[in-house]
Amino acid sequence: MNGLMKDKIVVVMGVANERSIAWGIAKSLHREGARLIFTYRKERSLEKLNALLSQEGIEALLKVQCDVLDDHSIRSAFQAIGERVNVIHGLVHSVAFAEKEELQGEYLETSREGYLLAQNSSAYSLVAIAREAKKLMLDGGSIVTQSYLGAERVVKNYNVMGVAKAALEASVRYLAEDLGKYGIRVNAISSGPIKTLSAKGVSGFNDIFRTIEERAPLRRNIDQDEVGDATLFLLSNLSRGITGEVIHVDAGYHILGI
After folding, report:
1. I need a surface site. Which of 3, 106, 173, 203 has the fewest CB within 10 A?
2. Residue 190 and residue 158 in contact, taking contact as beta carbons nearer than 8 Å
């Protein structure tokens, strides 16, 4: 442990299982001495989280329920966090939902309900969470969310989630402007495809995975630990001059013209 985040308190949102990007981030933060608070959505998520923490030897400062689709739940979660600690230094937003049927076929056929769910869970949730987190980020700090190349380019079957991620990236810029005067930075990591639980819902995901391996400049895919370390950088003081950015961690695939 190098202690890059020693005694820094970071809230991690979005650990669903051992393949979650948020779990890779949590491991990187723990390695560097951060004190971690976790949110979970449902009791079954808490059970999985507890098993992972025990397996990795991580002692959470707090585990609190939070449904990002519910403003009352968000307020209650951060109130509970505030009662446990006086300040937080970082926030990891790794949350997104879309109905499986919206992630196949043509975007043209997106339902209104499916569109609103994706936007609400993936983009607006960052706004709602940042509003509450600000109250506890009394010493400034860093907020980092997770995006994907589908926000910038058409990725087959990513559909409504690509549009939601585009809104998420725009929100990063607007939030960076709003929160900068309080010393709070807001950035995003745009990672390459990782075999997470949510990725399984994207039709043709394995084809995307193979394409990256064949064509990306590094000729390989990336893993959750690489995303974890990049997110760690953005949460740490090493990135103190960076805000409003989207940093790609995708083996260079995004630079290709075709």
Report:
1. 106
2. no
**DSSP β-ladder status, 90-93 and 9-13:** parallel
SS3 178: helix
For residue 120, what pLDDT band results from cuts at 50, 70 and 90? very high
SS3 for 33?
A: coil
Residue 89's SS3 state is coil
Among residues 168, 13, 137, the alpha carbon closest in space to that of 77 is found at 13
Indicate if 253 belongs to the active site: no
SS3 44: helix
85 neighbors 6 (Cβ within 8 angstroms): no
Q: Which tokens belong to 170?
A: 């725009």
Active site residue 148: yes
Residue 58 CA from chain centroid, whole number: 20
196-235 pLDDT, tens digit per residue, is: 555 555 556 677 888 889 999 999 999 999 999 999 999 9
Q: Please tell me the distance from the alpha carbon of residue 131 to that of residue 115, in angstroms, as a whole number.
A: 23
Beta-carbon contacts of 230 under 8 Å, excluding residues fewer than 6 positions away, are: 189, 191, 247, 249
Burial status of residue 172 (CB atoms within 10 A of its CB: 0-12, 13-18, 19 or more): buried
Strand pairing partners for 248?
190
What's the mean pLDDT in 92-109? 93
pLDDT of residue 43: 87
The pLDDT of residue 65 is 97
The single residue of 40, 124, 158, 253 carrying the catalytic annotation is: 158
